[in-house]
Design goal:
By secondary structure, the protein is of the alpha+beta class. It has 4 domains: about 120 residues; about 90 residues, Calcium-transporting ATPase, cytoplasmic transduction domain A (Distorted Sandwich), CATH 2.70.150.10; about 140 residues, HAD superfamily/HAD-like (Rossmann fold, 3-Layer(aba) Sandwich), CATH 3.40.50.1000; about 120 residues, Calcium-transporting ATPase, cytoplasmic domain N. The protein is about 55% helix and about 20% strand. The protein is built from 26 helices and 22 strands. Strands 10-22-21-20-11-18-19 form a 7-stranded mixed beta sheet, with helices on both faces. Strands 2-1-3-9-4-7 form a 6-stranded antiparallel beta sheet, with no helix packed on it. It has a 6-stranded antiparallel beta sheet with strand order 12-17-16-15-14-13, sandwiched between helices. Strand 18, helix 21 and strand 19 form a beta-alpha-beta unit. Helix 10 packs antiparallel against helix 25 and helix 10 runs parallel beside helix 26. It is elongated, with a radius of gyration of 34 Å. The two termini are about 35 Å apart. The N terminus is likely disordered.
């Protein structure tokens, strides 16, 4: 389904919502008119107006009930209300039956409104998708429908316009507002080669971009589809309630049929009272509030998470998240940024640090190894101009041999430059750096060790805070990493995680995850969605670091679009709050049903008040569920 089609459906739903409310209000006005006419003695004319109120107010719910009954071959709560209204009219209680229809219609209209409110965040996203784009052909820009564009098309995006499709910048530099994708309020600088996503805003520079995906497969569309699927997928609790509804409705109808006869013979009630009380029972015993206890809260929670960069793939995953007792983390790209940076650069006494760095960075600039790229970037940050070597030779598994103006330079591991020289350099500094979990590279000239470079995959700035918050919520935290014991221990200490397992292969992570499940039961897994896929699939809830990647959207049960680890704790609190609200709703709805049934049997409540109690409780549980739209503290 495209965004445009979905948006059109949204407008249709809004129109139907308004029509339903108008019909309900019209029914109420007709009831008031009929009551006044009845007071003036025109009984027959008032009955005709009551019938008109029945038809106008009850049409929508009666149609819905009949269609669902035919489709599912099972009675539902809408049919109970229809039977109750018809029964009231049959024994001459036209006003009571009409009031029942009126309040039921008002309740239905409010129910539709409140349920649609839970889709507000997703509906607003749909409106952000541009329907037109500037297509560049022969350096001439022509405005065309986005749907007509093909992969590879070159587009012009002017300042202030939304990016129409996913692609890459080919010309220009700009700042892009990514809040529609990941919730980040600070614009990101984008230049040639950088990725762009549909629905984001080009703030201050005219750029040209190449389309890389069809408009129907953009990340923006995938986010909307993902959340829509999550909203349509029912949680286990909701599935149970819906199965229970069919059995319960049959039990209510059976009980009502018995109540139409039994009290007359046992308690001596007259026939009118007996049938009237049976109809009141039909109303007050209806499980409307119970049925509405879960779905509004679930939809609201899914929308709440989507607004804050947490995407759930279904109600089942949202429900399970709050039950987690432990959570495992991958290290690289999850707890850490995934790219090494230079943390220490130590040179031999009596040498110029910048000159040594210029030579080292010049040698490393010829390599595309991640460590080499990190060293080159470090030199750039220090504003050091590179001194390029005359010749370099790559020695696989060891390092690089380079010929420079000052002679031969070796850059690599201890075995390559000489283990004894490494140990003695600067009071065993290499051993100290290695104990901190850093990767150490050595630079040697004809006089010995010239410099030591320490690199480390730095911890995400929010990682320690996220772990601390999760621990406060009662979750046991574990790090599963393929790194060696020393590096793993250093990272674990830095983020203060409860436990860690080093030197894990993908299959080892699965084994460790199952071991944790044996101890804690419900265990989540957080990873980057690629090499962690087996562990994510085996976890109770798999959580992928998103940052706008397709693979993350397709791998896990929950996606952190902003790559913010603190959002995990938010999602857990969101799930637990939803579970509390659902329990409140179920307890309240059952208590109201029991109270109304007892009051009816004792003949202390009449049909209009029974309707108010029944429909009022339904509206209250829906509104209580919609509290899930509010931010979680």
């Amino acid at each position: 389904m495209t965004i445009i089609n979905t948006y059109q459906q949204k407008k249709t739903v809004n129109w139907m919502e308004q029509l339903e409310l108008i019909a309900a209000i019209s029914s109420g006005l007709l009831i008031g008119t009929a009551w006044m006419i009845q007071k003036n003695g025109a009984e027959s004319f008032s009955v005709a107006i009551y019938i008109l109120a029945f038809l106008i107010g009850g049409y929508a719910k009666a149609k819905e009930g009949i269609e669902e009954t035919i489709k599912n071959k099972s009675l539902n709560v809408e049919m109970l209300m229809v039977f109750a209204a018809i029964g009231s009219a049959f024994i001459g209680y036209w006003a009571e039956g009409a009031i029942l229809i009126f309040i039921f219609a008002i309740s239905g209209a409010l129910e539709t409104y409140t349920l649609n409110k839970s889709h507000k965040e997703i509906s607003s996203l749909m409106e952000l998708q541009p329907e037109e784009a500037w297509l560049l052909e022969n350096e001439v820009a022509t405005k065309v429908p986005t749907a007509s564009l093909e992969t590879g098309a070159i587009l012009l995006v002017k300042p202030g316009e939304r990016i129409p499709v996913d692609g890459r910048i080919t010309v220009g530099t700009t700042s892009v507002d990514l809040s529609a994708i990941n919730g980040e309020s600070i614009p990101a600088t984008k230049t040639v080669g950088d990725e762009l996503f549909a629905g984001t805003v080009n703030l201050n520079g005219a750029i040209q971009m190449q389309m890389t995906k069809p408009s129907s497969e953009t990340l923006f569309q995938k986010i909307i589809t993902l959340v829509q699927n999550a909203q349509s997928e029912k949680s286990p609790s909701q599935q149970f309630i819906e199965k229970f509804e069919g059995t319960y409705v049959k039990a209510v109808i059976g009980t009502v049929l018995v109540m139409m006869f039994l009290p007359h013979f046992i308690f001596g009630w007259d026939w009118t009272t007996t049938i009237y009380r049976a109809i009141v029972l039909l109303v007050v015993a209806s499980p409307c509030a119970l049925v509405a206890s879960i779905m509004p809260a679930t939809l609201a929670a899914v929308s709440n998470g989507a607004k804050r960069g947490v995407l759930f793939k279904g109600g089942v995953h949202l429900e399970q998240l709050g039950s987690l007792q432990a959570i495992a983390f991958d290290k690289t790209g999850t707890l850490t940024n995934g790219t090494p940076v230079v943390t220490d650069f130590i040179v031999r006494d009596g040498t110029n640090k910048d000159e040594v760095l210029a030579v080292l960075a010049g040698i490393e600039s010829r390599s595309n190894h991640p460590l080499a790229i990190a060293i080159t970037k470090y030199a750039s940050v220090k504003n050091v101009e590179l001194t390029l070597p005359k010749h370099i030779e790559d020695v696989p598994g060891h390092g690089i041999r380079a010929l420079t103006e000052s002679g031969t330079i070796l850059v690599g591991n201890p075995r390559f430059v000489g283990t004894e020289k490494v140990v003695d350099f600067q009071n065993h500094v290499a051993e100290t750096l290695a104990a901190q979990g850093k990767t150490v590279i050595f630079m040697k000239d004809n006089q010995g060790i010239l410099a030591v470079v320490a690199l480390k995959d730095t911890v995400r700035f929010e990682a320690a805070k996220a772990i601390q918050i999760l621990q406060r919520t009662g979750l046991h935290t574990v790090m599963l990493t393929g790194d060696n014991e020393r590096t793993a221990a250093a990272i674990a200490k830095e983020v203060n995680i409860d436990n860690f397992v080093a030197e894990c292969l993908p299959e080892t992570k699965v084994g460790q995850l199952k071991k944790l499940q044996g101890i804690y039961g419900q265990v989540g897994m957080v990873g980057d969605g690629i090499n962690d896929a087996p562990a994510l699939a085996n976890a109770t809830t798999g959580i992928a670091m998103g940052e706008g990647t397709d693979i993350a959207l397709e791998t896990a049960d929950v996606v952190l679009m902003k790559n913010d680890l603190t959002r995990i704790a938010y999602a857990v609190r969101l799930s637990r709050k939803m579970q509390r609200i659902v329990k409140q709703n179920i307890f309240f709805s059952i208590a109201v049903i029991i109270l109304l049934i007892i009051s009816n049997f004792l003949q202390v409540i009449d049909l209009p008040f029974g309707v108010i109690g029944h429909e009022g409780s339904t509206i209250l549980v829906i509104l209580n569920g919609l509290r899930m739209l509010n931010p979680i503290d």
